Amino acid sequence: xxxLSSLSSALESIDSGNEEKVQDALVKILSECDSNSDVAxxxxxxxILPALAALVNAVPSCQSRIADLIATLARTEEARSPxxxxxxxxxxxxxxGSSEREKVKQALRALGNICFDNDSGREAxxxxxxxxxxxxxxxxxxxxxxxxxxxxxxxxPLCGCVLNMMTGYSAVAEACLEADIPSGxxxxxxxxxxxxxxxxxxxxxTLDSILEGAQEHGANALREAGAxxxxxxxxxxxxxxxxxxxxxxxxxxxxxNELWQLALAAQGCVTxxxxxxxxxxxxxxxxxxxxSRKVMDLIVMLLTGxxxxxxxxxxxxxxxxxxMFNWLKSTDEKVLSSGALAIGNMARSDENCATLLEKGVxxxxxxxxxxxxxxxxxxxxxxxxxxxxxxxxxPAASKGFLAERKVFADVVPLIHHTVNPVCQKALGALRLMxxxxxSVAVGLGSQSSVGVxxxxxxxxxxxGVSSEAQRLVASIIKNSRTDVVGxxxxxxGVAVSLKSLAESQHVIMQHEAVLASNILVVANKDAAAALxxxxxxxxxxxxxxxxxxSPELKANVETLLKAVR
Length: 565
Description:
By secondary structure, the chain is mainly α. It has 37 helices and no strands.
């Protein structure tokens, strides 16, 4: 290195073991490292780490500066594994037991840097039983109610060490759970998280690492430690947007756990988030920042849990429904799609669907479909709105309501959409609307353009689209049972769609194909020939010889064979 010759005497002094010379040498080397970033890698190459390992116990009075130098060197990636190989990790863990606070602080810095993105360092820490030692330090700090700057100066490397030792390494994360580190982290966030932004950021990142590393165990441990209420409170206390975003990301990770979903819903997290990020306004709402967009995603996620949904929806009397209705009136694509997805999540029970329809959600959803059906943009909005309409179409009690209002007419244009997921959702929604509703079946089946499009989609390379189109053809035939619809569909070429449906690997779809074909041949004299021409006889003959086919299916196949042969 450029300054190595000038430091050669300092390196020799380290090897001497003389306390005074060692102190002076450490000061000189640290000063050089601070002024020249290239020095660290050259020092490692010169074998300084084994020399420092030999000094840790040989010159106890120098332990603070030795640990400081190790921490400085370990800021570079090339020093971390050699530090482990030099046996420094167990030596530094021993220093953590010192009564001298400065020594402990520097040892924490050194261990934290050695463990940063370095699994060999984390494994060495586990072997040295370092996790319980660090857990005790964290427990002691958590009990200190008032924090001076000196206390914060100690907390930062302590919490940073905890973060670095567990990030991306599940074995350490599990050891941290056993040592009850989550309780200490939550207590420190509760008492001091809003006092120091840098420390708060590290603490929240540590919670996220616990969730990632220990997964469900970590989520449960944090919840039991009271993390839910603490995080929600800190979210309202900090002003820094980057920390807010970090908190939202952590809550999103935690919300994949159903118990966290329930806790967040029960403790008013959604109301707090809506108010803080001004997403509950009566007027126009916009997603004008990454944080607000992530908040919307989190709220939608909380509505996927059954128990959390019950709390938030509360039979339509909860705080969430009026807000979602307002989101559906927005001109912001993210707000619109989030509102539609939220409504779709709410519409997962017959009771909720009835409430949503009673309160007028259908008008808002159909307005979205009409405004966006002719554009290739706003795909997320259309997909979300169609998902909601589809879910609302599931209950038997909803079907008549939707049929009376001819909702299918507003959905039909979207089967012509060029984006497959939108097209598939539209087909699925129509199939549910047709079920048991002859007026809807006739309304669709009597339109030649609909028949032609369904035949076209039945051969789509997208399996989701083709199967939904084929099933919709079968459902229209089953529920209309009129020769007019039969003629229109045959003219469009639906015999091919029915044959493709019959060739499905799914038994329920085979049943649908055979039943619809039987109905079609009874209602229309030209149907048998059309089915023969596309090879339906060969397809259903194979079905009849299938040993695993049900007696009901075989009976229906036998009836169809008699009609088309």
